[in-house]
User: Fold this.
Amino acid sequence: MVEMVGSIVLVGVGLVAALNTVGASKMSQFRVIASRQGHLLALQLMTEILEQEYEEPVDTVVFGRESSESAGDRADWDDVDDYDGWDSTPPEYKDGTAMSDLGAWRRIVQVDFVSPSDPTVVVGTDQGIKRITVSVKQNGIPAAELVALKTIGLPPLEACCLGDGSCEDLRVEACAGQGGTAKGPKTHCATIDCRPSPILHYDFDEQTGTTVTDREGNVDLTIYPGNGAITWVDDGGGTGLFFDQNGETGTAVARTVDDNVADTLKSALQATNQLTVQVYLYAEEFDGLYGRTITYSRDTGSSTRNFTIAADHVAATTSYMFGRVKLSSSASEYVRPDIIPMGNRTVLAFSVDATITSNNIKHYVDGQLVKTSSGTGDFSQWTSERLLLGNGRTLDRPMRGTFYDVKIWDVAMSGVDLQEAALMLLGRVCGDATCDTGEACSCAADCGTPAAFEQPGVDCADSLDNDCDGATDCDDSDCAADWACLFALCNSNGVCDSGEDCSACGTDCDSKTNGPQSGRYCCGNGIAESAEGDGSICDGNY
Assistant:
């Protein structure tokens, strides 16, 4: 009996010890799981906070939420200190939707100004750095805590239009240093056209009536059918105006009602002594005595011939296209390219730079330079004339065909710009059921409606601006939570981008780590640099 009692006691003690061991193990596993879940909840909220601006980008800057922002709805919060004092049970998404099955969890946010020299020290004024603390509790017990710093950093990049019409994403100071024009916060070259705006533009979108409207608001034209017919069309070239007349005897024309109507055009061109005319058309037949496409001129007397783009009929299927301009120190200068086939949609461009005297008159066909000439003098002797399409002043220089687009600039456009403009007119016709290069964000009819946002894990590494907001992949805030973007230290694009340095991204950022200490350098860490290997040392250019 004594032995039995002793055995029971020993078994009981062993069982209690075993149960305590199992209980401790299970509790440890529970705490590990809780810690991991808490960390994920903290990371999700911290990622959202760090996506926001350092300070209020729209309203008057205050610490905490601005008056226009709701205290209980994070949907319109746009800077990190909007989150100061946030406390929610259960945790919520940014749009206010509660996370399911997390009723025992609580998230708390605290934002403080801290010292740049010691981020553990809270200070009373903004010194360019804020400390964000996200705390997570389960049933009142701390489960996780994350701390991050947000600095005011370098000013953001924005689109900068340079003097040659090109665009670079630069900071405002760098843009000004290169003589460019910054286009404003949150602009990107992907969505900015830096080419000079025309001073006259006919796109023929009216499709009714007897007036051709200048979209720049300067010089409208009136339609005169004469012995032919002028009709609005909408075909494979876009909206246009068809001159349905005999190419030898037709008298149809679209023109200004009087000579002085186009004086605003003359004054603008005389002010710069530069000119570019671009005409997108479908030519079918020209008069044998230089049929007119566009002319600001009379047909007789060199003193009244300001500028013209015309064609000399050669045969049923060919013509010589040419341009003419009147300069003060020389006779009318002609630019006559090779024979151009008829019956094709064609972009003709004629540019003159009277501020120089050599190779300053050029003619382009479909964006390609086909002829160059030289002329001296300026536009000072131009006279007030009518501006005409499809015929000459005396109505005996007809053209049969369709105009789709006409532009005039008061600058001599570059060959690159004219080539791009021609390609856009010829190869990117919205509505042709083909999603051409460059149409994804501008032609829903061909390419469909752009995505509402970039999808993390799907769109953040495809080098495309899927939601057409001007930002691609990790540069788009939608991708901030994407794993590849969270831990991206080097994109290997050959440029030392912000956030990269020579240590983590030697393929993009230059360095020299040997030789005298005074000659060593490591580019990056917030100091911009141009293309790697260009021989410049941390030169401050992206």
